[in-house]
Amino acid sequence: MASLLIASTGGAHRLAWKDAAALGPAPRLARPWPAAVAAPAPLLRISRGKFALQAITLDDYLPMRSTEVKNRTSTADITSLRVITAVKTPYLPDGRFDLEAYDSLINMQIDGGAEGVIVGGTTGEGHLMSWDEHIMLIGHTVNCFGAKVKVVGNTGSNSTREAIHATEQGFAVGMHAALHINPYYGKTSIEGLISHFEAVLPMGPTIIYNVPSRTGQDIPPAVIEAVSSFTNLAGVKECVGHERVKCYTDKGITIWSGNDDECHDSRWKYGATGVISVASNLIPGLMHDLMYEGENKTLNEKLFPLMKWLFCQPNPIALNTALAQLGVVRPVFRLPYVPLPLEKRVEFVRIVESTGRENFVGENEARVLDDDDFVLVSRY
């Protein structure tokens, strides 16, 4: 069988077939080899239809790494955060991002005392974004606000390959930490969960997100304990409840409540560090008080009607409706989300009045809005 010879002479390369008589004139290629690229070995024999073993190395398949550390966020910088807003993504009437409204919303979070933002999470509708949109929005947030607030990019996926790739890109554009959910729909075993998180944890500070109502699978304590030795594990966003929170805080694992209506008690009675909040999109100052000013049963009870209203339908439907009613974002919805019905919009106006308009973001009075005011976008 004929074989291909690659020979190097004085920086030029020649390809020739060993059995030239059988194959006809030998093809030739002569081209200077770039100085910055290492030339191949003087003589390498490759059988046709096979790869040279020397061309396949383990290093080709390892996650990308950066040796630049001077601006990198430490895990400790994340574990100290008490109020992290799962921030809303606003849209223009054609369905593209409304970056002007987004920037204004982020500034309101910073002014209200939020210390971090989750970009492209469930609330930010990351599942309705292309990965290009997703990484662009993370990079934009870091570029504009990274010196004032910690940017946590939701780069999780039910595909480990996609989670690795998105997380590499997220850290490359400067995010301070990653948020990772467990694989949903295509659920896996306990061993698979551990392996999934072990694959993404080496890349940078990471918050693991447990929300069984959405993924269809709980992340049990055994999984978190198995990966707790990773220095990049910043903590867990936990939505199961107070007892699970206490299970982790007793072991010294940082926990953020993922339930606004439980976050006060999780913080002051069960040891949670803080909250990753939907409500703080609307009332960042009050959520800051709830996490910093000590146990405050009166304030907590005052906020219950808003918390209950926010989750009367799957998040982020109510939040999207509320921000539009406050005039903070345009009343544009990417399908399959649609606004709350009229009676719920009327109820929100009453909640704003009873809570105090001054406690909410924006400057306009809360309006009910008509059904025709909303734009539903199916292609974007």
From TrEMBL:
Keywords: Amino-acid biosynthesis, Diaminopimelate biosynthesis, Lyase, Lysine biosynthesis, Schiff base. One of its GO terms (molecular function) is 4-hydroxy-tetrahydrodipicolinate synthase activity. Gene3D superfamilies: Aldolase class I (3.20.20.70). The keyword Acetylation does not apply. It is an enzyme of class 4 (lyase). Coiled coil: none annotated. GO terms for biological process: diaminopimelate biosynthetic process; lysine biosynthetic process via diaminopimelate. It catalyses: L-aspartate 4-semialdehyde + pyruvate = (2S,4S)-4-hydroxy-2,3,4,5-tetrahydrodipicolinate + H2O + H(+). Its EC number is 4.3.3.7. InterPro entries: Aldolase_TIM, DapA, DapA-like, Schiff_base-form_aldolases_AS, Schiff_base-form_aldolases_CS. It comes from the Eukaryota. SMART domains: DHDPS. Pathway: Amino-acid biosynthesis; L-lysine biosynthesis via DAP pathway; (S)-tetrahydrodipicolinate from L-aspartate: step 3/4. The keyword Lyase applies. Catalyzes the condensation of (S)-aspartate-beta-semialdehyde [(S)-ASA] and pyruvate to 4-hydroxy-tetrahydrodipicolinate (HTPA). Belongs to the DapA family. This is 4-hydroxy-tetrahydrodipicolinate synthase. It comes from Oryza meridionalis.
